[in-house]
Design a protein that fits this description.
The protein has 434 residues and is of the alpha/beta class. The protein contains twelve helices and 16 strands.
């Protein structure tokens, strides 16, 4: 897209706005519209077409927009688009750093789905707003003018993607974004149901070996465990991206094991520094993988990767069993754990920053009681993750003091798989470089 070709103000004020010819022209351009307004800053214009026409014919009263790390859905008055009077066109503009990327959806609602009037004390208003917001998420729609493929999460339907031009490159994901990604090579792919005797739980596990299936294997391949495997197997399939990076030599041939979370309740239990979960991984799952999966996976070179609670779990595993997990990839790690009160926020407001805030892992590291072993750690967090930045900062300092080798970075974005997918490949490239 020619970023200078679309000047949003001119387009929105044009006399023909909302006419069929105007929409036909809009359809030929990549949405949302983007234009530089200052060095390193862009104005983004979101456009939505009301299928029912203008305000005289349409039952749509508001079109909310939920943008990861930008809009605040806990607000009593969440951000919405504005209708251009007399037309079927709705729009909203926001300025973002040119290196930002994130996911978004539109939520068009009729009068019956407007928020209830504020009643009761602050807590009652918060709970009512939370209930209302959850109730309208079923109405969320992706952006039909955005040409990129949608993606999803455990808690959402189809999300649209926005990548501003100075965001870190994600060329490995181009095939998925454009609908050209192929199914994983069946000779290198295995899916199974793993029943853990220790945990008494059955879950999906997906395994994928990169590199040619016919190659003679001279050396053992690194073993990489991806927590929240359902994300990387189904919601945002990672196979084509791994193959892309392996073909161009950025990643070595490796064996990837994607471990399903089962559901949110089980995820919270397993990934909250759960010793039994990691003992089951080591005693039950990994021996089977090493003995049976083609690709000669290494028992000595194992990376564990996770996001959010998964980032916490990955760090916990590496710190407690460094002889088994010698590489850790943590993205937006939930290092507030177990102090949930660190996430408290005033009603309708973002969670406030708390410099110096630390969770249980940072405190444990400070005691000096961790097993001997120097880890290689790739750690990142988003620039719009509020107190998550503070707890990641504190853990990073504790890791350095404990003698670990850490690459720490803050990316321009939020708690968002669209950001994590690029950081995942960057982290693997750094961790597996040796």
């Amino acid at each position: 897209m020619n970023l200078n070709r679309v000047v949003a103000a001119d387009r929105l004020l044009a006399s023909e706005v909302g006419d069929p010819a105007w929409w036909a022209q809009v359809a030929t351009e990549e949405a949302p519209w983007r234009e530089f307004v200052a060095h390193g800053t862009m104005r983004v214009t979101f456009i939505w077409r009301d299928p029912y026409g203008n305000e005289q014919t349409s039952p749509i009263k508001r079109v909310y927009i939920d943008i990861n790390s930008v809009t605040h859905h806990h607000s009593l008055d969440p951000q919405s688009l504005q209708r251009i009077a007399g037309t079927d066109a709705w729009f909203w503009q926001v300025e973002r750093p040119a290196a930002w990327r994130g996911s978004y959806v539109f939520i068009p609602v009729t009068a019956e789905h407007l928020p209830p009037p504020a009643q009761g004390d602050e807590k009652a208003q918060y709970l009512a707003q939370r209930h209302w917001w959850r109730s309208i998420m079923d109405l969320a729609v992706s952006d039909p003018l955005n040409p990129l493929a949608t993606h999803s999460t455990d808690w959402s339907g189809a999300l649209s993607a926005l990548h501003l031009p100075q965001a870190p490159e994600q060329s490995a994901w181009h095939a998925l974004d454009t609908g050209m990604a192929t199914q994983p090579d069946s000779q290198r792919f295995t899916a199974l149901d793993w029943y853990s005797q220790r945990l008494g739980k059955r879950r999906k596990v997906w395994m994928y070996t990169t590199g040619s299936a016919g190659d003679e294997i001279q050396n053992q391949r690194p073993l990489v465990l991806l927590l929240d495997g359902q994300r990387w197997a189904q919601q945002m399939p990672i196979y084509s991206a791994l193959d892309f990076e392996t073909r161009r030599g950025r990643l070595p041939a490796a064996v990837y094991v994607l471990i399903d979370a089962i559901d949110s309740q089980q995820r919270n239990e397993d990934l909250s520094c759960n010793k039994a979960f990691w003992q089951a991984i080591q005693d039950e799952l990994l021996p089977w993988v090493i003995d049976t999966i083609p690709g000669n996976p290494s028992a000595e070179c194992t990376v564990v990767a996770g996001q959010s609670l998964g980032g916490l779990a990955a760090m916990y595993a590496g710190l407690h069993w460094p002889e088994r997990f010698n590489g850790v990839l943590s993205q937006s790690g939930s290092f507030w754990w177990p102090y949930i009160e660190l996430l408290n926020a005033p009603s309708g407001q973002p969670c406030p920053r708390q410099p110096g805030a630390a969770g249980g892992l940072a405190e444990w590291l400070g005691t000096g009681g961790q097993p001997a072993g120097r880890l290689r750690i790739f750690q990142e967090v988003g620039s719009h993750e509020d107190v998550m930045i503070d707890v990641n900062d504190s853990l990073h300092e504790a890791l350095i003091q404990a003698g670990h080798q850490v690459h720490y970075q803050i990316f321009e974005g939020g708690h968002d798989g669209l950001c994590w997918r690029g950081g995942m490949l960057d982290g693997l490239a750094w961790l597996l470089a040796e």
